[in-house]
Amino acid sequence: MSRPMTITEKILAAHAGLPEVEPGQLVNCRLDLVLANDVTAPIAIREFAKIGIDHVWDAGKIALVPDHYTPNKDIKSAEQAKLMREFARAQGISHYYEIGCMGVEHALLPEQGVVGAGDVIIGADSHTCTYGALGAFATGVGSTDAAVGMATGEAWFKVPPSLRFNVTGTLGRWVSAKDIILHIIGLIGVDGALYQAMEFTGDTIESLSMEGRMTICNMAIEAGGKSGIIAVDDTTRAYMKGRTERPWTEYFSDPDAVYAQVYEIDATAIKPTVSFPHLPSNTRPAEDARDVWVNQVVIGSCTNGRLEDLRIAAEILKGRHVHPDVRLIILPATQQIYRDAMHEGLFDIFLDAGAAVSTPTCGPCLGGHMGILAAGERAMATTNRNFVGRMGDPTSEVYLGSPAVAAATAVAGHIAVPEDLG
Amino acid sequence: MEFRGTVHKYGRDIDTDVIIPARYLNTSVPEELAEHCMEDLDAGFVGKVAAGDILVADENFGCGSSREHAPIAIKAAGVSVIIAKSFARIFYRNAINTGLPIMEAPDAVDGISDGDKVVVDADSGTITNETTGATYRAQPFPPFIKDIIETGGLIESVKQRVRG
After folding, report:
1. Which 8-state DSSP code applies to residue A127?
2. How far, rounded to the nearest angstrom, does the alpha carbon of residue B57 sit from its chain's CA centroid?
3. What is the DSSP string of A369-409?
């Protein structure tokens, strides 16, 4: 009988070919997917070339997504995208997504069935942890780790201790997955899960859609986490069925698995939450932030640019108009989400409200393009980071919140909750 | 290996967006990145940093994005070593993989001030503050990571493995 293990330990053990692993152990794991984007792939490709082998380990297990500065904002970014495109063609990379079928990588790859339960995935993008929502071990790495992953199909990991967040109770009206994860980050801080795996359990988590689960795992990195993970259930199976291209494997934490810490979170006490500048952990209830006037609202990103997010925004924006001093930019995260939102009539609601609707891109989330802030300007965003200068000028400010709070804020002109709109 | 330089000291949670703002990520050329290193945290950094200088910071240095441009920019700006109370995990990997020396030494961080002259013996993990005379010890790296560093970074160690 092997030692009791967490879901994370079981996935890493299986991929390291070991019967068991324990926190702190260094293991070499077989990878199911390596991904990079137009910012990180150019360096990865350069480093790959230094290794001295001609071909990637498996052209079917590498995903390259030009999503950060695309459609390209300037000549330099076009050169980076070109480098990635040519590498993808030369290597026969099957999961390369050109403009027109592209999306924000962490919304796109689950949607396209490229990731599945039980996988070990590394991505040269910190929000790779999103895929934990499907019961996979997924973690962000740098370009050099991605290069080595592309060459060898392996990566080394230090098995992380696990933190368990057991979230129970029914969420209030307009309280969403985003509020849960902002609440948790506010509770433990931006390094509260440093080097550790964040495992989310409880009936509140089980009640969430896949979209909501991805929002939660997406922001594990904002607490310093190595990964976020939610075990497979019928919601996950229904999502993966007919979508995930490879057979998946389900792992579950043993009842007596050891956690570095267990947090009991009462979901009924969580309010719509906003992160003030300049850290995601700087959280306050949105209802205490009504004196914060904003110039721009962004609804999108790998955190909150999925169909469910757009539906919530539309519900609030329907029959209302964006405040005259606010610019509302909505970015459906993938082409499929874009099409679905259009067919559902959400675009009419957004356009009638005075919003701009963009083609999928990471764009303003990282201060790339499509909505950069001038000196002293403020934005409310459904994105994931509010560091100094994240969306533009170093004196600009970003406030993070849910799609509901963002939509209400766009109408009110200041940070608001939907109830404020009357 | 020994490093000697003037300390530039910063606080906790220094994120990769202030180390190298995303508006400059349309390139990966080290020298171009170095021109904007730490720009949104300390606009005067590039003007005052000299080759061999040392960065000192509190907890969670390098949090946020996975951009390897961050350690590349710091290294190309001339910084020889970073001493912090702790590093964000992706930055930690990236620094080791790209050959930028880093050390976790909470006591040293508390005992070193901005502008101090410091000597670091990377092999023994000894940090000497020449300004105050105090000596500190960094946490040793696990042997596996030490091997990567001594081989000259991750690519070098993989090259040897692929050939072997």
Report:
1. G
2. 10
3. SSSPBPTT-EEEESSS---TTTTBSTT-EEEE--HHHHHHH
B99–chain A nearest CA distance, Å: 11
Nearest in space to B79 (alpha carbons), one of B155, B7, B154: B7
User: B56 — phi, psi (to 5°)?
Assistant: -130, 135
Q: Nearest residue on chain A to B71, judged by CA atoms?
A: A142
Helix spans in A231-379 (H)? 234-240, 301-304, 307-317, 335-343, 346-353
Q: What is the pLDDT of residues B140-154, one digit of tens each?
A: 888 888 888 888 789
Specify the pLDDT at position B164. Answer: 63
pLDDT grade, residue B139 (50/70/90)?
Answer: confident
- The neighbour count for residue A144, using CB atoms within 10 Å, is 28
pLDDT for B27-41, tens place per residue? 999 999 999 999 999
Contact check, Cβ <8 Å, B23/A367: yes
The mean pLDDT values, 10 residues at a time, for chain A of 422 residues are 91 97 95 98 97 96 98 96 98 97 97 98 98 98 98 96 98 98 98 97 98 98 98 98 94 98 98 98 98 98 98 98 98 98 98 98 97 98 97 98 98 98 90
Chain A residues closer than 8 Å to B71 by CB: 142
CB contact under 8 A, A76 and B26: yes
Inter-chain CB pairs, A–B, below 8 Å: 142
As a whole number of angstroms, the distance between CA A223 and CA B130 comes to 36
Q: CB distance from B143 to chain A under 8 Å?
A: no
Percentage above 90 pLDDT, chain B: 80
- Count CA atoms within 13 Å of residue A75 on its CB side: 0
Which has the closest alpha carbon to B10: B61, B52, B49, B46?
A: B61
CA distance A330 to chain B (A): 21
What gap in Å lies between CA A49 and CA A89, rounded to an integer?
15
The nearest alpha carbon in chain B to A51 belongs to B159
Q: Does B151 touch chain A (CB under 8 A)?
A: no
Q: What pLDDT sits at residue B123?
A: 84
pLDDT at residue B161 in the model: 79
Domains in chain A with CATH codes: 7-264 (3.30.499.10), 273-421 (3.30.499.10)
Q: Which of A75, A110, A130, A165 is nearest to A334 (CA)?
A: A110
**Amino acid identity of B128?**
T
Q: Which member of B15, B18, B66 has the closest CB to residue A124? A: B66
Structure tokens at A12: 């890493």
The CA-CA-CA angle for residues A32, A234, A254, to 5°, reads 70
Rounded mean pLDDT of B100-116? 97
Type of residue numbered A248: W
Using a CB–CB cutoff of 8 Å, tell me whether B64 touches chain A. Answer: yes
Q: Do B69 and A43 touch (CB under 8 A)?
A: yes
Reported ipTM: 0.94
Largest CA distance in chain B: 48
Residues of chain B with C-beta less than 8 angstroms from the C-beta of A77: 26
* pLDDT value of position B153: 84
Whether B85 and chain A come into contact, CB under 8 Å, resolves to no
Please tell me the distance from the alpha carbon of residue A20 to that of residue A213, in angstroms, as a whole number: 27
Of A74, A140, A394, the CB nearest to B66: A140
